[in-house]
Design a protein that fits this description.
It is a single chain. The protein is mostly beta strands and 801 residues long. The protein is built from eight helices and 41 strands. A hairpin with a 4-residue loop joins strand 9 and strand 10.
Length: 801
């Protein structure tokens, strides 16, 4: 039996969010409190010489918190700010100074309060039976999770004091007098111009059960040949919320509607009536999963996760072995993904606010549609001051946006667990001199991967103008089938493939030398959105949009409406459009490490007869090194641009040059959108631009707009940015990099109990600069910058006694 108790706490008392030290209020602080209690019981029994049973039962409990040092103090009560939901923690406070400009904000902010109570119970039983040439293993695993997770977003309040009540109003100009009004003064007066408290569901009580069983047989066919055959079956039940407080949009291409699990009615979830009424007033409709034929748990149960395994090992000679294997593996959706994607789905999240600019008693303020002048032209009433000024959570809110409400749409009826097939073949051979070698091929295919796809996307301006002959509406949400939505669509249709060739040579440490060296070649392609929730229409490494992530390959699967000409492509064909090279894995990588006893001192090649006193100084020194070299990873041209030809430039043909006005020298890495006439002092031959902005526009220029002739004969410049750019993605290999670290060290031993270790470490020992990545629009690489730090030398002395 094993009992483990772990505690890990950390606190930062100042500087967090750049705030000064203030331990009494928790401002500028962060706190992490993690507790772990684990109880495990392991019972092994030898039933007979051929039968062995292993039973394991375990329970894990983790009550965790991370946030700030103020999370458990009722600061709203101390500050007299509204706290209708009765939560603790520091509220967000902001002021604005008109005399310093509208952007001069001063904030007292803190991180959200995160609470987790994670519990799991596990039981495993494994049986081993040995019979002749067979070693048979079988068993099962069961695991239950009860994960209670809360992330409280500004439930304690998010408030603002602006230059409104203290502003001098000019009737003649019908505007505020410039440079008058102080939000900080109004903060001291307790006179806010905006109060709000966010309704959160509090804890999510997530539940899941995992069961699995397996059978394998290891067969010693001959002294040289061993086979291994196996089959595993796994099942993860869909995550459920104990109080059924989960919603997903239903048929978002046609309706502004969400569904709840099973037959659970939205009104039975304990959500404040004002929350539901607010969303209903906006037009949101509610249904149950059962009433529309949806899976009861919102995600279908997956029962077909059968995973065969095959392995073979054959000894060709006493020093050579060949091995091979094939297997299928399944992975269920992590809890973090469903939590992040569903915690803000309407209607179970709402900000209640008190905004005097939306005072319905002043013309223009009715229904919260327009700002009025109440704080600017009216003397504050007693109820405008704190603490009488409050936030009424019983009153439906009119502040919800009419269009573009964010939510995540899961394709629950077609749900699948992620599936990976992997196969490999390896040859191992022993060489003289304590040296071993290995050559391997490894292939994988990932299927049913989490994939972001377009849903309810807006029609590009160009397509709308071409179809109707009219200028598109200024409100872009009106170009969506259901304007009220702005959705992420997530399903499990993504896939990836990679092939890897690996070579290894290693020497067991002997005679003062040991080393390892590895080479890997990888070709990996994927459709998947790297973070699961990144917007497929942006790039993380700069540049334009239209579906390139720039993170690790893949993008959001576009809808036909986002493709130029709106072709009728199947989903599989559109999924193929986002199948790119993985941009986080360099195609080539070489790594090595070594340790070497320097040949000085007693028994060594040099000064082998040195006296003991001299040997203390020159003997026993060791030199260690670790180094890497890799080719550049795949990268892409900005998807806001159009490729007119091949963009790659051969490595030996990249020109270098100067640009007037810049003190740096540049290299043309690929044929990007760059005017060669701007280059001076050119070494080599500049390639002509193979990239340009889209066009032509109404003037015939290529500046990222497309000309459309409207019904009235006028020409309209439609932005190209609304389209999914089908040009090749991630088709350029970026600059490579290498690094070598060295360490020289020695142990000085004095008797049995005292040991002193001196080391001199050099990171980037050769002070080699690695080139930065080129600009994804121009294709130019700045040779005056480097991507890695310069050499760092560290001296250390460690004493043990």
């Amino acid at each position: 039996m094993r009992y483990t108790r772990g505690v890990s706490t950390a606190a930062q008392e100042g500087g967090y969010y750049a705030n000064p030290v203030n331990p009494t209020s928790g401002m500028g602080s962060s706190a992490d409190n993690y507790y772990n209690t684990n109880v495990g019981v392991n019972y092994n029994r030898t039933i007979s010489p051929n039968w062995l049973n292993e039973l394991l039962i375990g329970v894990l409990r983790e009550p965790n918190h991370y946030g700030t040092l103020a999370d458990f103090t009722d600061w709203s009560a101390k500050l007299d700010t509204p706290n209708p939901f009765g939560v603790t923690g520091w509220p967000t406070l902001y002021t604005e100074e008109a005399s310093l400009g509208s952007a001069a904000y001063f904030g007292w902010d803190s991180d959200n309060n995160h609470l987790q109570h994670l519990t799991s119970e596990t039981i495993e039983d494994n049986v081993t039976w040995t019979h002749g040439k067979h070693t048979v293993q079988f068993g099962f695993r069961g695991r239950k999770e009860q994960n209670n997770v809360a992330e409280l977003q500004q439930a304690q309040g998010s408030h603002n004091w602006g230059p409104s009540y203290t502003t001098d109003w000019s009737p003649s100009a019908f505007n505020a007098t410039p440079d008058t009004g102080s939000g900080f003064a109004e903060l001291l007066l307790g006179l806010p111009n905006y109060l709000s408290n966010q309704y959160n569901r509090g804890y999510f009580y997530f539940r899941q059960t995992e069961i699995g069983t397996y059978f394998s047989d290891k067969i010693k066919v001959s002294p040289r040949l061993t086979l291994s055959l196996g089959l595993r079956w796994d099942k993860w039940t869909p995550y459920t919320e104990a109080r059924n407080r989960l919603t997903v949009p239903y048929d978002p291409e046609s309706t502004f509607e969400v569904i709840t699990p099973g037959n659970v009615n939205m009104n039975s979830l304990g959500t404040p009536s004002a929350v539901l009424t607010s969303w209903s007033n906006l037009g949101l409709k509610y249904a149950t999963a059962s009433s529309v034929g949806y899976p009861s748990n919102l995600f279908r149960s997956v029962n077909h996760d059968f995973a065969p395994r095959l392995g073979v090992a054959y000894q060709i000679s006493p020093k050579t072995v060949i091995r091979g294997a094939y297997g299928i593996y399944y992975v269920a959706m992590p809890l973090s993904l469903i939590l992040q994607s569903t915690r803000t789905n309407p209607p179970l999240n709402l900000r209640f606010q008190n905004n005097p600019y939306l005072n319905p008693n002043v013309p223009g303020g009715a229904n919260g549609q327009y700002f009025n002048l109440y704080p600017l032209i009216t003397a504050p009433a007693p109820t405008d001051y704190l603490p009488p000024a409050t936030v009424d959570i019983t009153k439906p809110q009119n502040s919800l946006q009419l269009y573009g409400n964010g939510a995540t749409y899961w394709d629950g009826p077609n749900w699948n667990d992620e599936r990976q097939q992997t196969w490999n073949i390896t040859v191992e051979h022993e060489l003289p001199g304590h040296i071993g070698t290995r050559l391997s091929y490894i292939g994988t295919y990932g299927g049913n991967l989490e994939q972001q796809f377009g849903i309810d996307d807006q029609e590009p301006y160009y397509s709308y103008a071409l179809r109707t002959g009219m200028v598109p509406p200024s409100n872009s949400y009106l170009l969506r089938p259901v304007p009220e939505w702005s959705l992420y669509g997530l399903n499990h249709t993504g896939y990836s493939r990679d092939h890897s060739l690996q070579a290894e040579m290693h020497r067991t440490f002997a005679n003062g030398l040991g080393f390892q060296a590895f080479y890997t070649f990888v070709r990996a392609l994927t459709t998947t959105d790297p973070g699961g929730f990144a917007d497929g229409n942006t790039t993380v490494n700069g540049g334009g949009g239209n579906g390139s992530l720039g993170g690790s390959g893949g993008a959001t699967v576009p809808e036909n409406i986002e493709l130029l000409g709106e072709p009728s492509l199947s989903y599989a064909q559109r999924l193929r459009l986002v199948y790119f090279n993985n941009t986080t894995i360099p195609p080539h990588r070489f790594t090595f490490d070594a340790i070497y006893d320097l040949p000085f001192g007693t028994g060594k090649h040099f000064a082998g007869q040195a006296p003991k006193s001299l040997n203390y100084l020159i003997g026993g020194w060791q030199l260690a090194t670790i180094g890497t070299w890799n080719s550049g990873p795949w990268m892409g041209v900005s998807t806001s641009l159009v490729q007119t030809g091949p963009v790659r430039i051969a490595a030996g043909k990249r020109a270098t040059f100067d640009i007037p006005g810049s003190s740096f020298r540049y290299r043309q890495w690929f044929a990007g959108d760059f005017n060669a006439s701007n280059a001076t002092n050119v070494s080599g031959t500049l390639a002509g631009a193979a990239v340009r902005p889209a066009g032509p526009d109404c003037t015939g220029a290529y500046d990222g707009k497309l000309a459309v002739t409207l019904k009235d004969g006028t020409c309209y410049d439609a932005p190209f940015s609304g389209f999914y750019n089908p040009n090749p993605r991630d088709n350029v290999i970026g600059p490579g990099a290498w690094n070598d670290d060295l360490s020289l060290y020695k142990h000085f031993k004095f008797g049995e109990r005292f040991d002193m270790r001196f080391s001199a470490d050099a990171f980037n020992a050769f002070n080699h600069p690695n080139d930065v990545a080129p600009n994804i629009s121009t294709g130019l690489q700045n040779l005056g910058q480097q991507a890695n730090p310069s050499r760092v030398i560290q001296l250390s002395l460690r004493v043990e006694f």
